[in-house]
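Re: [help] complex structure
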Amino acid sequence: MAALYRGRHRWKRINCLHIFSRKLTGKNDYDLLVIGGGSGGLACSKEAAQLGQKVAVLDYVEPSAKGAKWGLGGTCVNVGCIPKKLMHQAALLGTAVKDAKKYGWQIPDTVSHDWPTMAEAVHNHVKSLNWGHRVQLQDKKVKYMNLKGSLVDEHTVRGLSKAGKETILTAKNIVIATGGRPKYPTNIPGAAEHGITSDDIFWLKKSPGKTLVVGASYVALECAGFLKGIGLDTTVMVRSIALRGFDQQMAGLVTDYMEAHGTRFAWKSVPNRVDKVSSGALQVTWTDTQTGSEHKDTFDSVLWAVGRAPETKALGLDKLGVQLNKETGKIVVGPDESTSVPNIYAFGDIGEGRPELTPTAIKAGKLLARRLAGQSTELMNYDNVPTTVFTPLEYSCVGLSEEEAEKRHGKDGIEIYHAFYKPLEFTVAERDASQCYIKVVCEQGGTGKILGLHFTGPNAGEVAQGFAVGFQCGATYSHLIQTVGIHPTCAEEVVKVHITKRSGLDATVTGC
Amino acid sequence: MAHRLVLRRLWTLSVNDIRCLPTSTASVASSCYSTSLQSSTTRVSFLSPSRSLPRALPHTSRREVSFNVQDNEDFTERVINSELPVLVDFHAQWCGPCKILGPRLEKAVAKQKGRVAMAKVDIDDHTDLAIEYGVSAVPTVIAMRGGDVVDHFVGSKMMMSWTHLSAKSLDNEIHLSSPSHTPTIVVLMLFSLILARPASPGLPF
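Output below.
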């Protein structure tokens, strides 16, 4: 604690003294020092502490360009999964309220949404999680410090407080789990000045109003999805394709659903500039790259969802020779999360080639902690990771996309079973189910091992979780059809798929 | 911190010196109140009204007994160094039960007519302070006297139970069962009726 009160002018001398004393005594302040208090960092530090290690975690949130900042817990808790899912739920409830009339509920003709009510409720929950994490760290005896960490050498970290006070910490092992932040486009005038990112959207006190979402990643589509769902005029601007990296047929179904339900899409378009007009609104001019024509329109908010950049700049990694991927800027890591510098590890969103998901970060963090404590040699298995995109029509998948399976096994090496189904709940509600679809990609011949499973429909995440277990166990097509379905559900259609793409037959499920 | 508390104890009046006989006769009661009022009037008047709770209590004609803690120094001055026993209400914006307990606590404290003060600490604003006092779930109420924690409880009784306790019976509780000791015990006996049902946040991992 005394370190916090050292004067800046004495820092250098004490720094050297500190490092010297560590080198002399061989004694580090901590067994493990984790930089980053997000999904990965917290899981790793708590696991290590439970195994008897002396652990400290540094968490610091650099405010967004618009000044948004938040507490302990990282992206997932504060500006990711949690607020996203809650707002997605708010949007789904809006649809449910409309459906309710058909089911006999006496609901007024116009039902409106109040952003501040939703925002306050979401913020309260997020704050309760911030607090919960703080208490957990305390309970598990992990030292928490609200400091911005950077590396001095392979055993030394410098922590900078908001007020500018410096603290030097030494550790046997250092783990970097700083994650990423949304990118702003660099070549569009007015982008940073007038636009916001996902860091800001969840913390707005007032409704964003008529919004332009630039990007077609899951972040862009999920945000556009709930904004439209709560009744806001929403436009999505896509440069090339939607949901890059995902199965493109499924991506098409997701965007088709959104378009059919009122979200405007500006395909193959790139924004040129953003200006603020006298009314206070934002005027965006863009080019349709297919026709070359220019367009402009005014919006209340512009949300940039054009990618995420790793938080490595302020870490001082180049000084230590920690290898980064030149293209992405992420840290190059081995299968055991090690970096090019011994005793420095990195995992989570910051790791090159790793899925940017909370559950993988948590699991990887726990396994890393066990390995560092000498309790295990088990490596993280990054294969067969299921995931869900929480767009208005949810899409979940596990395993390979059709394109990837084709690439690896050849068109004749795979058999694709598919079905268009209609959720029972949509019938009375008279909802269009054209995009509710299931696709099971299997190996041709042999056991018919399932290579990939794809599902669009309500509660897609809940549906896919169980199937992911089967996938992990190496389920085959025959396993699938041997399983009796639960009736009446959407999930049962997965175990009933029998029409192949190859046959060319109509894949629409008829009544039971 | 321990040595600081010891020093503070030497400075502050022991609460036992302020004896209030539980009686319904106005004359005696008023003198008791005036004594306690006098000893802490200077402090109360020193504290600007803006620092006290904006919420109006039914008995505010007397004085405001509860206040929001502003920072660590404020906590030290008005809680640790307080001559009165202090009930510290650790609460949070996102905690539903806290919103129910808060006003009830204030009412009960107000009934003590100046013998007990109440400090409110928002745990999001004063996280380190809350952690220091071992708060995990909210609401957590800690009773402090002379800078020491003498008792605490976590959670709030469900609303229906409170409605069964009429104001009159609360008063009787105080008058009948309390010896002429520290008012804190009286208040705590009141709260020993409250079962713990804390608002614990659910964590994803």
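The interface with chain B takes residues 39, 42-43, 71, 76-77, 81-82, 123-125, 127-136, 138-139, 358, 362 of chain A (CB under 8 Å).
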